[in-house]
Design goal:
63 residues; alpha+beta; two-stranded antiparallel sheet
Length: 63
């Protein structure tokens, strides 16, 4: 049986099917956000947003 489960990306909040991104600890990052994060320079204005969103993984793990 091929069962798909939707995940919500911790970066953009959009639902994506399993296999359309990566699971880190208990969080999910879609392929689009993963690509954008990897290509974002640390001097870019959006970089702190990505860091803030990724911190959710630590909060959930340590809760």
């Amino acid at each position: 049986m091929n069962e798909f489960r939707d995940h919500h990306c911790i970066i953009c909040g959009l639902p994506k099917a399993e296999g359309e991104g990566i699971v880190i600890v208990t969080g999910f990052i879609c392929e689009n956000c993963e690509t954008e994060m990897v290509q974002t320079d640390v001097q870019d204005a959006k970089y702190p947003f990505f860091i803030h969103q990724m911190k959710q993984l630590l909060v959930e793990k340590n809760a």
